[in-house]
Amino acid sequence: VRGPPLAGAFKERPTGPTAFRRFYLRGDFPIALDHDTKGNKIAWRSPFEELDYLYCLPLFFDGLCETTFPYDFFARQGIHDMLEHGGKKIIPVIPHLIAPIKNALNLRNRQVICITLKVLQHLVYKVGDALVPHYHQILPVLNIFKNLNVNLGDGIDYSQQKRENIGDLIQETLEAFDRCGGEAAYEVIKYMIPTYGPR
């Protein structure tokens, strides 16, 4: 007699080719790889004021699913650069970012989840309560992984130094959502993730 099959809630899902990769290979983005003494960065061939955020930002968010260089680097760094310099251009694009964020989280790939959580923190710091109406679409996957911490007993978990511990990153992200989301944020988070409480 065999037991029931595993439900597979934590099982990694396969990813197909992303629209980001297709558009990058076609040369649609005004970017190039720039090497300097501090490592790689993006050389933007167009000023941020001239970038079409409604076109570019959702495609870069689609690239969060990428795990191979240079696509993963360009997507991640491109998002952070655009969020840093986007100002008022970011808020109108938010509804178009939710589907790529959900796709990245639903892959259940640990590396992709960590990168997406860091991007979500940066996004919520830039747009504040404009993200609250979309919490109910983002939070279910975070609820699955919220308590996924490595138990090493008295050992040392070096992933904490690199901010790659999923459970801790989710807690950080939820606290950022709570802090930046205004009065309604806590209730929405608590409804979707009953075990949430700020540390």
Automatic annotation (TrEMBL):
Pfam family, one: ParcG
Entry-linked SUPFAM superfamilies: ARM repeat (SSF48371)
Cellular-component GO terms for this entry: cytosol; neuron projection; vesicle
GO molecular function: Hsp70 protein binding; Hsp90 protein binding
Gene3D superfamilies: Leucine-rich Repeat Variant
InterPro entries: ARM-like, ARM-type_fold, Parkin_co-regulated_protein
Highest rank taxon of the organism: Eukaryota
Protein name listed in UniProt: PACRG protein
Organism the protein comes from: Crotophaga sulcirostris
Gene coding for it: Pacrg
